[in-house]
UniProtKB/TrEMBL annotation:
Molecular function terms from GO: DNA binding; DNA-binding transcription factor activity
InterPro entries: LTTR, LysR_HTH_N, LysR_subst-bd, WH-like_DNA-bd_sf, WH_DNA-bd_sf
Start and end residues of each HTH lysR-type domain: 6-63
Keywords from the named record: DNA-binding, Transcription, Transcription regulation
Name this polypeptide is given: HTH-type transcriptional regulator pecT Pectinase gene transcriptional regulator
Similarity comment text for this entry: Belongs to the LysR transcriptional regulatory family.
Pfam families listed in its UniProt record: HTH_1 (PF00126), LysR_substrate (PF03466)
Amino acid sequence: MRRTIFDLDVLRTFATGMELGNFARAADRLGRSTSAVSAQLKKLEEQAGTPIFRKAGRGLALTDAGETMLAYARRLLELNDEAAAAVQSMELEGWVRLGLQEDFGETLLPDVLGRFARAHPKVRIEARVVRNIELIERVTTGKLDLALTWSEGTLTPHCDKIADVPMRWIGPAEEAVGWNPGSGEPVPLASLEAPCLLRTAATKALDAAGIAWRLAFVSPSLGGLWAATAAGLGITIRTPIGLPRKVKPLLAKEAGLPELPSLGLVLHRAEAEPGPAAARLASIMLQSVGEAVADVVPQAVRSAARAYA
């Protein structure tokens, strides 16, 4: 049986075109002609031995094989880029101070730290998982080098907006919430302690819709919030990223709740030009976050990662 060896250059064109939603844009970004890109995509289908694309109206969509190919292409390119960075920066040393919102502490941090430590074992990382207001204060005063936060529009002098992530009403996966639409009773809310961007968004949306609410549970930590929501003590509001299995997003109309806006996701830097270690960690952060939000926000911004590569 002939062994198939995929061309990484072809995979990069494929992945870039899917990220941008247009292969003409991919050709422009990669400095190639559209005919060269078409030839590469044809080569990819030949190597795969099965159709990657199918007709969808006037454009193209991925087949099931294409979806699988895209997932593997991103993994192969990520490993290739990580290997290149590791070989080229073996002597990278220093200390990086990183801050994250709680939503990403358990889901994103282990992957980011693992990837970075394997490539740069001599760099020391201090990670802090705290609330938004503290992250912003620490990065603007230079106590953190990088901070990943939610944003309702407030930006710091040096930051990269990654995506606008939709907020969702969250309820228990199995238990029933002790509230019914149209009952006239206030909506029971489970919330983090104030100040909290998502708590404010929830109460504003309910007030605008003329729906009464009450604080049924207040927690200083995200773990406590998940426990209360899973037990049916109240409905909360978060994004769909990093949800534990014991809770689930609710359909606003079916739950008798108002639609919610999106929330910005931003990587802040203490300096306009971070040092080599902080720049490399920022690149890995942006790649990992892009993957985390890909299912929630199609075509999430990933180009910022290239600025740190």
